[in-house]
Records
---
Amino acid sequence: MRIAHVVSYFQPEFGYEEYYSAREQAAMGHEVHVITSDRIFPFKDASRMLADIGSPYKDRKRPLGAQEMEGFTVHRGKTRFEVLFDLISYEGVVEALREIRPDVVHAHGLWQWGTRKAASVKDELGFKLVIDEHAYSTTYDQTKTFRNWLLDKEYRLLRAPHARRSLKKADRLVAICQETVVFLRDFYGIKGCELIELGIDHRKFMRDEASRERVRKELGVGDGHLLITAGRVEREKRLEHFIEAVKLTGLKDIHLLVVGRGDQAYLERLKAISDERTIFMGFKDQRALSALYSASDLGLWGKASITIREAMGCSLPLLLYDVPNMKDLIKWDNGIFVEPSPVAVKEGIMRMLSDPKALRKMGDNGRKGVMEELSVAVEAAKLLDLYKACLKAAK
């Protein structure tokens, strides 16, 4: 099968679905292409993130043209303009599709420029069009602030019209979580979409005892308790509760790792309320992050993130806030929910750390869940089945 993934931003050094899907599908023997811009995603702290992982790139720009990568080909077109953070137009989508002549185009994101361009030549080139969507609400639907009200208006006026035009040409629509299914139904009126959850790199994210010993020695935690939270540092995650909870435990031999970058003002606030038991580590690449998960005893998260699944791959038990979009992440008996408050988090930590045998069992259960449902291999295989069903339906 000849497959083309069309995505606005492509940053394999940070992972993400479009990279994993292309890599895994190429490994399964298919001809795979990625058509994208000459930019990576506009992370607010992209330069720092790249420096943290030792990338040879200093900024978001990437070389134009075609490049071979891990069994598939990446085609990067010149950016024409980029506005409103991530509304981007770039060259070469139609030209690349005409050259590749794919059987299936997998377009990532309903409203993106590449999705719209692919939809415009679908009938001409005769491929099947699969579109996926990661959003599960407009920003305004989540938190009613003036800023989010403006973002919601921008989405409805600028992005949603592009999405609706592309949807008319889609053969299949993929949602990455149940909340996305609900959003697509309520906002766009779509009832028939496929739920295929995001997978993580189960080969990179797995528990490693040698890394555990090394990292704990480097951090000087010895046989003490090591907790971790990772991902973008955002106010919505209420990370201050984790820091306060560690203080409330009264334990001297407990430490919390905060891994990631994001809202700098919020990060400074977190540092101001922390003591020596909280360690801020900046952004880490996948190899380093896997080692940190392996070294830790318990993972804490306040908001859904792909990092939670990566931690599960490393057999790390979870303590999560009891919020709707994380309900399915501990269905394997691999963690607990708590209310988002320092006292509730403290009580949850103490309860879990008091039973090391049960804690390790939870971690093993999480790894099992990844291998059964949440690995990139499982996701890629499900997508291939969907592509084949599209092609079969056309015969």
Note: The chain has a mean pLDDT of 94.
---
Amino acid sequence: MKYVYLLKLRNGDIYKGSTGDLRRRMEEHRLGKVESTKHFRPLSLIGYEAYQNHEDAERRERFLKTTGGERLLKQQYKNAITQPYGEVA
């Protein structure tokens, strides 16, 4: 399986990534081993999608990083995005 995941960073931004091992990757983020998120900890996983096909997951991740994808995320994850940090499970 390939996962596309969304993290809410301490500064309120949403990080989009993909991985084949979601638990391992979340631990790397939590420990500050990921350069792009290490200065924005703590962070929260607000959502993920699972794909059987690697190319489908990569295509979805690329889309979510576009303007249209950002707009879609703001609609789909409105509550998780607008809640103050720490209230997201």
Note: The longest helix spans residues 54-64.
---
Amino acid sequence: MSLFSRPAYTSDTTDFLRQLKAAKPTLESEQRQGRALLWDKTVNRQDQAEFKDARVAQKPYVYQTNTPK
């Protein structure tokens, strides 16, 4: 027996995830569908440029009133 051979350690989190995936095999595909619904979007570069050009610069101190001098 070698000094370096020992049973492989797995964390509680890894064990939980393995059990969850075994109990619900469709979990990964459902996660991908949810991600596609919220995050995987095509970006319209022209709209992005227009939004950037239309942006109004913010004052250094936003709570200051505009009183005439």
Note: The mean pLDDT is 88.
---
Amino acid sequence: MRDYKIAPSILSADFARLGEEVVNVLAAGTDMVHFDVMDNHYVPNLTIGPLVCEALRKHGVKAEIDVHLMVKPVDRLVPDFAKAGASWITFHPEASEHVDRTLQVIRDSGCKSGLVFNPATPLDYLKYVIDKVDLVLLMSVNPGFGGQSFIASAIPKLREARKIIDESGRQIRLEIDGGVKVDNIREIAAAGADTFVAGSAIFSAGKATDPNRYDTVVKALRAELAKVKV
């Protein structure tokens, strides 16, 4: 079995209680924090920046923080997020003038680097920079908003990405983001993903008054992953 990681997207959390929300969802058995950064330029939405990342660290969050930059340009923000406590920084190649340089800037800042591919973006970039990539993130929705439905074409694309990664012989994680739920996570994992971003599936689960609602949905996700035959 692969080393599966569940990364709750805080885009779907209650921002009035963000620190508490993140602590609770990690205590429920998730592995890392997915941190969506949108600039109302590269994508039609505006979210959060390095100060919020830093605030989570000051709140006591020790888990890895997976910063997904949906911004253009990219390079200026990388050192700020690295200083704020990011563990991983991923970006969309279309948003960088020099993809190789941006990957190196991320690594030079002390973070692990990754490329993000939108539903209609081919994986061709990987041919030239796979030696500088620690993570490949495939979008299974169009970036910009949470709560969208899973785009089925992500399944064959996952298989293609898994083949590229395996043939490279490198330790590269394969992450999926968008519409991941209990009823499809097994199929997604079988196609090759090992890291799963889940926002509304986790933070909107059950009743807000139920203190165990995160535990219940995370256990259900884990149970489905345990059924995967690789």
Note: The CA atoms of residues 196 and 212 lie 21 Å apart.
